[in-house]
Amino acid sequence: MKQKESRVSSYYAVAGIYAFFIVALVFYIVVLQQFGFHGLEFQIGGKDNIITALDLLILGTTVASFALLGISLIAFKRKKDIRIFIISLAFFFFALKEFLFLIDNFFPRETVFIGHAERGLEFLILLSFMMLMYIYRR
Q1: How many domains does the chain have?
Q2: Is 92 exposed, middle or buried (0-12, 13-18, 19+ CB in 10 A)?
Q3: Sorting pLDDT into bands at 50, 70 and 90, what band is 9?
Q4: How far apart are the first and last CA of the chain?
Q5: Which domain holds residue 26?
Q6: Predicted confidence (pLDDT) at residue 67 exceeds the cutoff of 90
Q7: Is 33 helix (H, G, I), strand (E, B) or coil?
Q8: How many CB atoms lie within 10 A of CB 99?
Q9: Span 18-47, mean pLDDT?
Q10: Alpha helices in the chain (DSSP H)
């Protein structure tokens, strides 16, 4: 019984870390970087005003990451396995990271420095995989 309680408390600890980083990320982008305060002017060609291979790669990886997130959520809905849910979390954070690249490229008037947010999301992705290994070990 004590082992089950410690497992549940470790899940809550990881969920708390996730929640803290997500709130900090939103605070950083919206409040500190003032995203959305410059008019949100979309440019189809990105920063260089020309559609290049980089623009297509950014769009492609963003769409693919959201597709992987959708597939993993469908798999979780069918199996109800916590390991699939944690994989879904990792795909969610990866999709957010790619979405930040999309914002950085196609909304050039917004002065969002995504480097810090990118590192935070990469930390959450690694934390998801570490949590997955922790659960698999048990």
Answers
A1: 1
A2: buried
A3: low
A4: 15
A5: 2-137
A6: yes
A7: coil
A8: 16
A9: 73
A10: 2-26, 53-79, 82-106, 115-137
- Decide if 88 contacts 76 (C-beta within 8 A): yes
Residues 6+ away with beta carbon under 8 Å from 42: 106, 107
| Cα 58 to chain centroid, rounded | 15
CA distance 112 to 117: 10
Torsion of CA 91, 92, 93, 95, to 10 degrees: 80
Report residue 92 as tokens.
Answer: 């969610």
What pTM does this model have?
0.71
Backbone angles phi, psi at 37, to 5 degrees: -90, 0
- The residues, ordered by sequence, that sit 6+ positions from 40 with a Cβ below 8 Å of its Cβ are 107, 110
- Could you give the C-alpha distances from 88 to 39, 64, 134, in angstroms and in order? 33, 14, 16
